[in-house]
Amino acid sequence: MASPQTGIFALGTSSHAYLEFDLAAEADAPSAVAMVASLREPRTTIGGVNLVAGFRPELWAAVAPDAAPPGVAGFNEPLAGAGGYVLPATQHDVVIWLTGSGYDVVFDLSRAVVVALAGVADLANEMVGWPYHHDLDLTGFIDGTENPTLVEAAGVALIPDGSPGEGGSVLLLQQWEHDAIGWEGLPVQEQEGIIGRRKADSSELDPVPASSHVGSTDQDRFGKIFRRNIAYGTLLRHGTIFVGFSRDQRTLQAMLESMVGMAANAPDRLTTVTRAVTGAYYTIPSAERLARLSDQVNA
Ligand code: HEM
Fold it and tell me: Is the pTM of this model over 0.85?
């Protein structure tokens, strides 16, 4: 298999930054993409930072058509469900996900990336995430129970060898702000009905309510994805950064459509207590393809 950007699978780091950039008006798209591709993780094995780079799907397809998964599109229009619930579209041109052992090293590298891209791409949005009690999200539930293991994750997240974009992935990146007061005011049993799992041990309710979150995103129905969700925020505004990888954008999109009630089911009840404030899709190229582009910069 064409080798992926390894940061996708580097679990266990305690600090994350997601930097979304727009190309500068005067930037030339191929040179800008090559410049992003040339960004490097610092060469250290201790306290290092992983760097994952991605591009607005249409931008990547224009610059590297031979390595673009067909039919992948940006989050270009808001997604409105039957009940008027809307997922906003806040697509940008480039995403850089930095993750490391502490925010000091992530912060330093974030600044270095912004400086390196000056004049080429402008920082348009920044999100900083941190793990909450190991594997909980800020609802207090375990997040990731039905995630594939690391052995299975490559098969779920990566475009297979022989297909255009091999070794790459499609990322859905969304910031969701929780209504913490509303959520915490609900009895635990009610919360469990909304998630579709028990709060204490993440065991699945039997039967799973169709309008629960697990019922709305059932991977047996839509296909599998690999999630790297993380908590973010401060007391006043906080929630979940949804970070979902798939080899096939349609799987992610079908889950979103189901959550807002566009599929044949009622909207996901999770949407009554959390709302998406950003939403973007990015093509994540393989490590090899990025290296080939970056060679052009260094040549
Ligand atoms: C505020 C945002 C979100 C929160 C707090 C959240 C939280 C959770 C929790 C607690 C679970 C149950 C445990 C687990 O299997 O991980 C879960 C399952 C899942 N979530 Fe989310 N999630 C959010 C958004 C999303 C979005 C936007 C998607 C898809 C686009 C999604 C896809 C899934 C999938 C596929 C599962 C596993 C379903 C299965 O059992 O097959 N989630 N999520």
Answer: yes
